[in-house]
Amino acid sequence: MSSTKASENKSLKLIEDPVGTLEPLGPFARSRRVHVEDGDVRVPFREIELSAGEPSFRVYETSGPHFEGRSVDELRAGLPKLRQPWIDRRIAKDGENKTQLWYARRGIVTEEMRFIAIRESVTPELVRDEVAKGHAIIAVNHKHPESEPMIIGRRFLVKVNANIGNSAVSSSIADEVDKLRWAVKWGADTIMDLSTGKNIHETREWILRNSPVPVGTVPIYQALEKVKGKPEDLNIDVFIETLIEQAEQGVDYFTIHAGVLLRHIPLTRGRTTGIVSRGGSILAKWCLHHHKENFLYTEFEKICDVMKKYDVSFSLGDGLRPGSIADANDDAQFAELATLGELTDIAWKHDVQVMIEGPGHVPMHKIKENVELQDRICKGAPFYTLGPLVTDIAPGYDHITSAIGAAMIGWFGTAMLCYVTPKEHLGLPNKQDVRDGVIAYKIAAHAADLAKGHAGAQARDDALSKARFEFRWEDQFNLSLDPEKAREFHDETLPAPAAKGAHFCSMCGPQFCSMKITQDLKQYADSQALSEEEARARGLEERAQAFREGGGDFYVGGADAEEE
Amino acid sequence: MSSTKASENKSLKLIEDPVGTLEPLGPFARSRRVHVEDGDVRVPFREIELSAGEPSFRVYETSGPHFEGRSVDELRAGLPKLRQPWIDRRIAKDGENKTQLWYARRGIVTEEMRFIAIRESVTPELVRDEVAKGHAIIAVNHKHPESEPMIIGRRFLVKVNANIGNSAVSSSIADEVDKLRWAVKWGADTIMDLSTGKNIHETREWILRNSPVPVGTVPIYQALEKVKGKPEDLNIDVFIETLIEQAEQGVDYFTIHAGVLLRHIPLTRGRTTGIVSRGGSILAKWCLHHHKENFLYTEFEKICDVMKKYDVSFSLGDGLRPGSIADANDDAQFAELATLGELTDIAWKHDVQVMIEGPGHVPMHKIKENVELQDRICKGAPFYTLGPLVTDIAPGYDHITSAIGAAMIGWFGTAMLCYVTPKEHLGLPNKQDVRDGVIAYKIAAHAADLAKGHAGAQARDDALSKARFEFRWEDQFNLSLDPEKAREFHDETLPAPAAKGAHFCSMCGPQFCSMKITQDLKQYADSQALSEEEARARGLEERAQAFREGGGDFYVGGADAEEE
Q1: Taking residues A62-88, what's their average pLDDT?
Q2: Which residues of B touch A403 (CB under 8 A)?
Q3: Which percentage of chain B shows pLDDT scores above 70?
Q4: In what helix (H) or strand (E) does residue A440 lie, and over which residues does it extend?
Q5: For the packed helices A331-349 and A300-310, what is the interaxial angle rounded to 10 degrees?
Q6: Alpha-carbon distance B386 to B399, whole Å?
Q7: Cα torsion A12, A17, A20, A21: sign
Q8: Nearest-CA neighbor of A352 among A237, A236, A253, A280?
Q9: Do A512 and B276 touch (CB under 8 A)?
Q10: d(Cα B311, Cα A269) in Å, to the nearest integer?
Q11: Over pLDDT 70: what percentage of chain A?
């Protein structure tokens, strides 16, 4: 197992200490982090201890060492560099660290692939094969050895990304480190640092050194800072310089808006909400000012050279995604998608991994077309969508408007869902918004896994429903996506500890609890059940009598406490 | 216009006053209640005043006279009886008040149908025709003349029901009246009083006299109280007595679990969560105790006689709906549905209106089958579903797990969506849970209207998105489903009044606001736009020069403030 002494991690020492006020996070009740080992690959899971003799239940776990709570000193030191030995070995053997796509195409199963195979309960060969085809990516910059490998592709569990990052108006480094820990606690599979305010470089450094999940960025934001906020002063040199700076820090994937072409821009003219992507609008301004083609497009191979060196993956940005229901699936959006298909081929030629970003705001009946087109045009490269929001009319609740679209688009084949928080369109999300956004998207991703018939996905639903049926309240809470919220809601009306063993809740009370009634009936069945033959022989009236004599208890099935 | 003096409303006088502590609700900012008149039919809308010369925007409005705020004295007096003159006229003419289905089948357009036609922007003939076919219902007990007519059917706007009501463990009459006002403020189209605790009759009276929307109940709950909570002591007489008592008070629709047959009960034996419907479990217990067929089924025509007399609509309950993903779409559920199809024919024979209740817990890929089967088996009778929840693993967030399923099932044709609150499975919802549940379901219903291509549905999305693009923050808030939440979230990071005119928010700050960048570009276009011919003649370089000289502003389309 690779781990690094705090003292080796020099980068954070150069920065003024902003995390002194952060309290350690604790694990969830009755949960512990366990590992499945295969040689030097140690794959984390969360094991939830259940009561009443039920076997403990394992779930996919994203919070890394934050799980056990990390002190301020540990935050300063950064996480252990678990992938460092694998990277060092490859560099010793091949002269440099190649991309996961390079290895996959040559039939080589990397440690990251073995890690993922255990994590996803699939064969290492499936992982390698999907990566080799470009149908899945493993976003692992070798300068971010702290990350626990994960995979993004339609044959695997649907993933969730959480955006964090400050703006010129709001937030500090401590806030962002706190949001990072919070995001992975609730289950974010990757995070994006979208900082555009102060201390962009330092904020990113703190995040990377403490992130157990891949980190994405949109480098054009920092490039724009470097040219004092004037889009027209951007050029490929300052952009490449920015890419190298961020790649050296360890960023695992870059959103790059290379598909916003000069000829696409007039297609947005009739739109209700024009260009809503920050990166897209910056590049549109550049293109029009110079009346030249987007330099990210014309110099795309130069960019590939940087990506390849670090194994940074492309997240090809959809700078022209629709920002309203009115603009969904329009010519501008699909013209850009065609360009992203072109760029996918170029990236693959360089053994660079690629995923494709998608919308945005799309009514339900137009969602499927997005996935089908993307899959065809981008030859199966993983799709990574923001929502989509299925209506524009609910600012303050866009985690919900978009979870609806996200669940559906996940079912149709999207590999990763970029969360939307309740603050979308209104302000910078705080810590609580991050939690609300991540949980809404864990719901969407899991619902998509169920609908896709993903092997094993339903086991957690079944375990939780069984706990519910059997009045194992604590087990029900602990198996849920947010045990703390579930417990808090139950406590609101029935705070006494004894209520956690009660055969009813405040919703219906003891008399009207369908669970209680059917539980009573089930107990009778367990002691008195007749075989079908016996029942037929004795006749129906006798069964009725047996039921009455048994105290009126007869199995009719389980139940949970619902209204009506 | 019919209105009644407070003194005429005697029923509330008999009850101890429980509403003394309630504060009046106020209207939303810059909103007023307006009416479209057609003779003695006065249809309410909410008109939202916009800024910048934009025409004011009208939305469907459900809160009735609560909109303007009602004092404690007005709550005691009850709402005006707006339908009383119509009912009186019909009784004078036909000797009794017939059902809306009776009138519709005879080609008679009632005042209620004319009211609904204006409310839904359709022809009265469409309303009459859909009711005549049984494809839509107008739930209007003539003893609830306070209600503003609305329609439930797949050709109309998708509706939302909010469940309120106390339990033995929690809540008071004042709490329930407050939840009623709150539910209709946020847009509930009907409410169900599911009280099972103290003062069932009195609570219902307060609710009915103050409800501008149809009220549903599950009469078996009160019938069970009358037999001291012993399901086996239930019988048709006590049930009919309860129906009459509640019909006399004015309940507009009854959930009746007449489809839970003795032979269906063993089909639930292998279930993970058995029978989760309170009504379903009570009747299952009765059937097994007596080993007889469900008396609601065998005596169904007696029940129809009561329904017909008052024009109470059936909501045929799905007592065997699945309570977990594991149990979705199973034999028990579909066996009951077949019985509900039979009962629909019997009700229609009596000119009684019918809708059909549906699940429950259903993974996304099994939702469509529910709607298709229900539509075929119940010959187009409106479908009314609880969610469905698309996963079991998120107690505390089941307004979200179920809004996903609700949006989809609404798109597929469900006419009314029964909300689920965040407290589902955990406790009795409070006022805030009612708001969260209603808003989540207004989102689902509106998303379904959009996906169905419902005429006019997109106008609100377009108006809000235009306001967003034009930085009309107050208009954006006021056009949203929850203006108070949207404003509160914006205030959290930028509380200064001036920020409501700012061309950015705290999410991205001024530099990175895609809206601002593209707004700048649009302004340029408005002054400098070239026709395509001119542009071609002048050549591209000249356009670029024009752009630069114009200060770098050129239209590329609108934008909203999103991340990336």
Answers
A1: 94
A2: 400, 403-404
A3: 89
A4: helix A431-451
A5: 50
A6: 11
A7: negative
A8: A253
A9: no
A10: 54
A11: 89
Residue B282 is nearest to which of A273, A517, A525, comparing CB atoms? A517
CA distance A481 to A75: 26
CA distance B361 to chain A (A): 11
Residue contact A509–B169, C-beta within 8 A: yes
Q: How far apart are CA A192 and CA A76, in angstroms?
A: 20
From B102's Cα to the closest Cα of chain A, the distance in A is 29
**Interface touch B284/A521, C-beta < 8 Å:** yes
Decide: pTM greater than 0.90. Answer: yes
Measure in Å the smallest separation between the Cα of B507 and chain A Cα atoms: 4
Q: Which residues of chain B neighbour A170 with C-beta distances below 8 Å? A: 493, 506, 509
**Residue B93 vs residues A280, B87, B141: alpha-carbon distances, Å:** 68, 10, 18
For the complex shown, is ipTM > 0.90?
yes
Q: Can you say how many angstroms the Cα of residue B77 is from the centroid of all Cα atoms in its chain?
A: 25
Structure tokens at B64: 């009735």
Using CB atoms, pick whichever of A278, A396, A490 lies closest to residue B564.
A278
The reported pLDDT for the residue numbered A529 is 47
Read off the tokens for B44.
Answer: 């309410």
pLDDT value of residue B409: 98
Q: Within a 13 Å sphere around the CA of B206, how many CA atoms are in the beta-carbon half?
A: 28
Tokens of A434: 């991050």
Q: How far is A511 from chain B (nearest CA, A)?
A: 7
Give the whole-angstrom CA distance, residue A151 versus residue A157: 8
Q: Which of B443, B508, B561 sits opposite A391 (nearest CB)?
A: B443
Relative orientation angle of helices A458-469 and A514-528, to the nearest 10 degrees: 90
Half-sphere exposure of A392 (CA within 13 A, CB side): 31
Return the pLDDT at A522.
Answer: 66
Res. A383: pLDDT tops 60: yes
Q: Is the pLDDT of residue A562 over 50?
A: no
Task: Please state, as a whole number, how many other Cβ atoms lie within 10 Å of the Cβ of residue A13.
Answer: 11
Q: Given this model, what pLDDT does residue A512 score? A: 74
- For residue A48, give the 3-state DSSP assignment: strand
Residue B497 CB contacts under 8 Å (≥ 6 apart), including other chains: none
Query: How many A×B Cβ pairs under 8 Å?
Result: 516
Dihedral class, residue A134 (left if φ above 0, else alpha if ψ from -120 to 50, else beta): left
Do residues B158 and B448 make contact, with C-beta atoms less than 8 angstroms apart? Answer: yes
Cβ–Cβ under 8 Å, residues B512 and A275: no
Name chain A contacts of B323, Cβ cutoff 8 Å.
465, 469, 558-560, 562
pLDDT of B514 higher than 60: yes
A177: amino acid identity, one letter: V
Q: Which residue has the tokens 């195409």?
A: A105
Can you give the pLDDT at residue B416? 98
- Which tens digit of pLDDT belongs to each residue from B220-244? 999 999 999 999 999 999 999 999 9
CB of B145 closer than 8 Å to CB of B8? no
Judged by CB atoms closer than 8 Å, whether chains meet at B288 and A462 is answered as no
Q: Within B299-397, where are the H helices? A: 300-310, 331-349, 367-377
Would you state the pLDDT for residue A523? 61
For B400, the closest of A326, A400, A468 (CB atoms) is: A400
Kindly list the residues from chain A whose CB atom is less than 8 angstroms away from the CB atom of residue B317. 564
Q: What is the pLDDT of residues B335-349, one digit of tens each?
A: 999 999 999 999 999
Question: Interior CA angle at B267 toward B263 and B268, to 5°?
Answer: 120
pLDDT digits (tens, 9 = 90+) for B362-386: 999 999 999 999 999 999 999 999 9
Nearest to A514 among B275, B541, B544 (CB): B275
Contact assessment for residue A202 and residue A15, using Cβ atoms and an 8 Å cutoff: yes
Among B465, B376, B385, which Cα is nearest to B419's? B385
Q: Helix (H, G, I), strand (E, B), or coil: what is residue B315?
A: strand
C-alpha to C-alpha distance for A131 and A152, rounded to whole angstroms: 9
